[in-house]
Amino acid sequence: MKHPAYSQLRQVTPSAAVVLAPNPSYAALEGTNSWVIRNPEDTSSIVIDPGPADEGHLNVLQAKADKVALILLTHRHHDHADGAERFRQLTGAPVRAFDPQYCQGASPLVDGEVISLDTITPTLKVVSTPGHTSDSVCFYVYSADPQDGELDGIITGDTIAGRHTTMISETDGDLGAYLASLATLEEQGKNVVLLPGHGPEGEDLSAYARKYIDRRNQRLEQIREVLAARGEDAGAITDVGTIVDAIYDDVDPVLRGAAEQSTRVALRYLQEQG
User: Fold this and answer.
1) Number of folded domains in the chain?
2) Gap between the Cα atoms of 107 and 165, Å rounded
3) Strand pairing class (16-20; 10-11)
4) Which of 20, 30, 146, 148 sees the fewest Cβ atoms within 10 Å?
5) Which phi and psi (to 5°) does residue 239 adopt?
6) Edge-to-edge strand order for the sheet containing 16-20?
7) Alpha carbon separation from 108 to 25, 97, 102, 270 (Å, rounded)
8) Do the domain assignments include residue 211?
9) Do 14 and 52 reside in the same domain of the chain?
10) If you average pLDDT over every residue of the chain, what do you get?
């Protein structure tokens, strides 16, 4: 079974399977990946990112995941987290996230924390990866205890979203933090399976992280060149549209807002860098 496979539990690694939510869009690609963590012989599971508040998807996810012991969120965005409250009602499982306000019946996630449950063979390590949002985390999926087990894959949420680049939130996102998070994933993800928030899995997470870094640096260099040609400072730009026109070729009107947001975030980063 290959991606995309709606309303199916598709096994991706020995410890991780995915149920694809039916919420396709430009940002979500074919939809949100809801991850189910367990071994076939385990009596319960952990679900990561139940996805949007889509009753049909949540019922399918509950049926496929069977007895859910814990619900985890990679970050707060609606296409990953809006279904968490309803999924808790369906399963009775607590919800944990890095941001306390998105937790239900449990404590917030802690950077470096290892999550191990008696009824589930795989274990998870929480790694804070801010940038896309301030509360973004990745989950390192180990076949057993991290000291003894194999790193089976890394669930990245929208830190590495799939085939296209990730938007940086203008409210609490940070490009500098994002580049640092990508550098961590590049270093620690060599030959590790990418389990993204959207799109198909990848064989080498490190290669994806490097591609994301290179793309961001390319855009930053393009903006620097435009600013230098105009003799302007990043903090003095009031018309972002003129920068977008200079660095993007034939922007689809549907994507114009995304391009302008990305450019504003980049200008803020350059201003902070001096």
Assistant:
1) 2
2) 31
3) antiparallel
4) 148
5) -110, 90
6) 10-11, 16-20, 33-37, 45-48, 68-72, 95-96
7) 30, 5, 8, 32
8) no
9) yes
10) 93
Confidence of residue 146 (pLDDT cuts 50, 70, 90): confident
Distances (CA, A) of 116 to 100, 153, 215, 236: 20, 16, 36, 50
Q: Are 49 and 13 in contact (CB under 8 A)?
A: no
Residues 131 and 227 in one domain: no
Dump pLDDT digits (tens) for 229-270: 888 777 677 788 888 888 887 677 777 888 888 899 999 999
In a shared domain, residues 167 and 57: yes
Residue 5 in any domain: the answer is no
Residues 188 and 221 in one domain: no
